[in-house]
Design goal:
Number of helices: 17
Largest sheet: 10 strands, mixed
Shape: globular
Distance between the termini: 59 Å
Strand content: 15-25%
Bound molecules: 2-acetamido-2-deoxy-beta-D-glucopyranose
CATH topology of the largest domain: Alkaline Phosphatase, subunit A
Strand order of the largest sheet: 16-17-15-14-18-10-19-29-13-30
Structural class: alpha/beta
CATH architecture of the largest domain: 3-Layer(aba) Sandwich
Length: about 675
């Protein structure tokens, strides 16, 4: 055997069988899995579960031990410089019972095409409700198959118990990138000779940072596990929140991690709330309380929020103080609510004031817990609520469900600003000296970017900016501005940017795809923004900081790094949200093409995504973090998404040095 050949053979024998398109289990490239996995960080005293699994692949490239998993595995933990102990001994708990299941997965697209999944038998244990109080480095070691070892190094971050901010408001522009902020500024703010005459509120923040959004086991994230990273300091897998995804079939038994609001309630008994323009059970708002590997368990996740599923809290307070958004289908009794039950009634029974429209939202008092659900699904976007209002009548989204057998439209709708300002008043009152945490999400920046509806996405970005501006002014008015850490960030991006201007009149007048493209002006031919010049005879009356003309002749040439086939004319969609790609006659229903009814006078842009994708997808870009208030300086620089959790937790003094709360007299803690 020649030297080159033997080196190649050696290299081949060292190759780890790590799935790429598909994975046997994320963060578990070997046959032994420790979750939380290697490189996990923890807040001192943060509750979590530990799941260990031993895999025995029955067939496929990893087949091992005739498909019989080792049931006699052991797990130890060693603090750096300390003594090695069994997990149960270290945490003073009983050894949990052994669990067994099997699952199957495709090793790659060839296996999927051939219909040959690999089957894996599993032996596992879950050690639940653990906490490590002493900062430092810990090594957890799983030993199995008589000598195989999987090691996980964990870091318990330095302890900070002093509360430096009374309140925290975390704004999340879902999917919002710097490119989108730049485009929103261009259409919402007038400039003369390249100099802006007014700025976004975001432009005025004193501190700017960058966060990296990667998932635990994929570099492109979704909104569930990215929200979870922001709220818990633990990365996870796409579609999972508040847990590390294990391989069991049950979407609710995965090892949990405690979230910022669960810790805040437990440690300081503060008030907290969530506001979103999405359905309230959507990933970003629900990940504050949700613990599941499947973000699609909407009804169950609403039940988890109401009843605090982890039961980490020993105060009597369960559930959010304020919860405003859409998603009525999880509340009125029916197929989308948990066990078909009436969650309006359940929230009312738990002491919540319920409001189902803007009028009653504005009439809410400040003292009671409040649930405001204003429509089915996501709220119609700012552009439809404020400019093309006739479109609202086309929605079938009455928050009460079907009335007399028919579901009509929700017409009395609040925006993000009304919901957020009311939430601040209620949280301020209910939190009192203990302060509050509020998450407020501009959700449809992401949702409308998905459907390439740039105008609707940018309208909602400007609504978020307007909400931040109004919130800061309101905090000042109620004397809380100095006490409040205000953060504006995103959970991930999309590959969106503006690359020029478009003469839409010229584009429409040309008859071929190739001729139409000449209407796109780049460099010196991009011109200046026409969105800030009033159109004759048109008054939108939507106030400063928004375009005065949404339908100018010269629009933005804008596009997407990842798209389905679509047709582009670069004009606003006045008749309602855009549908860029559809099925067409004569082809399979998952074989999609440019929607023949969308932008009929435009030119075709062939997609870069699998032809079964109907929308654009998330992208790799880092996203910005704007901060002001106590601890603002800690948000400068470049860091991972989980660091946002640690920065907020440290500013709130949420770390605990021992198992005793020591803050709430008369409340025992018990053993973990
Ligand atoms: C299980 O492992 C322990 C050591 O970790 C060993 O003493 C024991 O004999 C093993 N039991 C079986 C059934 O293999
Ligand atoms: C593994 O076994 C299952 C069940 O017998 C079978 O359906 C599957 O095709 C097999 N997979 C491979 C990769 O051989
Ligand atoms: C929550 O925990 C407390 C004390 O640990 C216990 O008394 C109570 O029954 C638990 N509630 C639920 C719903 O599990
Ligand atoms: C708004 O809700 C209140 C009660 O929650 C109801 O009385 C009122 O009719 C509703 N208004 C509209 C316009 O639906
Ligand atoms: C709620 O709080 C705000 C701000 O402090 C105050 O202006 C408003 O009057 C309060 N509303 C009620 C009903 O007390
Ligand atoms: C480009 O898109 C058009 C319209 O959807 C479609 O007819 C054509 O087949 C596409 N071309 C390729 C190479 O996919």
């Amino acid at each position: 055997m020649g030297k080159v050949a033997s080196l190649a053979a050696l290299a081949a024998s060292l190759v780890l069988v790590a799935g790429q398109t598909y994975q046997r289990l994320g963060a578990c490239p070997s046959l032994g899995c420790v979750l939380p996995p290697d490189q996990s960080d923890f807040l001192p005293g943060q509750y979590f579960d530990l799941r260990v699994e031993v895999h025995a692949p029955v067939n496929g490239s990893e087949a091992y031990n005739n498909g019989k998993p080792d049931e006699n595995f052991s797990v130890t933990i060693t603090k750096k410089g300390g003594k090695t102990k069994g997990i149960a001994e270290f945490f003073h708990i009983k050894e949990p019972k052994l669990e067994k299941w099997d699952f199957s997965w495709y090793e790659d697209l060839f296996a999927e095409d051939a219909g040959t999944p690999s089957v894996v038998n599993v032996a596992a244990k879950a050690y639940r409700r653990l906490a490590i109080y002493e900062p430092g480095t810990y090594t957890v070691e799983l030993s199995y198959y008589g000598g195989k070892k999987t090691r996980a190094e964990w870091v318990v971050r330095p302890l900070a118990t002093k509360k430096r901010a009374k309140n925290v408001i975390l704004f999340i522009g879902d999917g919002m990138t710097t490119n989108m902020i730049t485009a929103a500024r261009l259409i919402g703010h007038k400039s003369i000779n390249g100099k802006y005459q007014s700025l976004l509120q975001l432009d005025k923040f004193p501190v700017l940072g960058h966060q990296m959004t990667h998932s635990l086991d994929s570099y492109i994230t979704d909104s569930a596990n990215s929200a979870s990273a922001l709220y818990s300091g633990h990365k996870s897998t796409v579609n999972a929140m508040g847990v590390y995804a294990d391989s069991s079939p049950d979407p609710f038994d995965d090892p949990k991690v405690e979230t910022i609001v669960e810790i805040l309630r437990r440690v300081w008994d503060s008030a907290w709330g969530a506001v979103s323009t999405a359905q309230i059970a959507d990933a970003t708002p629900i990940a504050l309380t949700g613990h599941s590997r499947s973000r699609y368990q909407y009804g169950a996740l609403v039940d988890q929020a109401l009843n605090s599923v982890t039961n980490y809290t020993w105060t009597n307070q369960k559930g959010p103080d304020v919860w405003f958004g859409g998603g009525a289908e999880q509340f009125y009794p029916g197929k989308d609510s948990y066990k078909g039950e009436d969650y309006y009634a359940k929230f009312a029974a738990a002491g919540y004031d319920i409001s189902l429209n803007k009028t009653s939202l504005l009439e809410l008092g400040n003292s009671s817990k409040a649930l405001g659900i204003f429509c089915r699904s996501h709220l119609p976007v700012w552009l439809d609520r404020n400019v093309y209002k006739d479109n609202l009548a086309d929605f079938t989204n009455d928050p009460r469900g079907a009335q007399g057998g028919k579901q009509g439209p929700a017409l009395d709708l609040p925006g993000l600003k009304e919901m957020t300002l009311k939430a601040v008043d209620i949280l301020h009152k209910r939190g009192g000296d203990k302060g509050f945490f509020l998450m407020s999400e501009g959700a449809s920046i992401d949702k409308q970017m998905h459907s390439l509806d740039y105008d609707r996405a940018l309208g909602d970005l400007l609504e978020l900016d307007d909400t931040v501006r109004a919130t800061i002014a309101h905090l000042k008015a109620i004397g809380e501005l100095e006490n409040t850490l205000v953060i504006v960030t995103a959970d991930h991006g999309h590959g969106f940017d503006v690359f020029g201007g478009v003469d839409t009149k010229y584009l429409s007048a040309q008859s071929t795809n190739r001729a139409k493209r000449r209407a796109v002006g780049v460099y010196q031919n991009s011109g200046i923004s026409q969105y800030t010049t009033p159109a004759e005879g048109v008054s939108y009356n939507t106030g400063a900081h928004f375009p005065v003309n949404w339908d100018p002749r010269y629009t933005l040439a804008q596009g997407f790094g990842a798209s389905p086939d679509h047709r582009e004319n670069f004009r606003v969609h006045k008749d309602g949200p855009r549908v860029p790609a559809t099925e067409i006659d004569g082809f399979d229903e998952d074989d999609l093409f440019a929607n023949p009814e969308d932008n009929v006078d435009g030119f075709v842009v062939n997609g870069t995504l699998s032809t079964d994708e109907s929308q654009g997808v998330h992208s790799l870009t880092d996203v910005p973090v704007f901060a002001m208030g106590p601890c603002q300086d800690s948000f400068g620089g470049v860091y991972g998404n989980i660091d946002i959790f640690y920065k907020i937790a440290n500013c709130l003094g949420l770390g605990r040095p021992n198992a005793k709360p020591g803050i709430l007299p008369g409340h025992g803690h018990g053993k973990y």
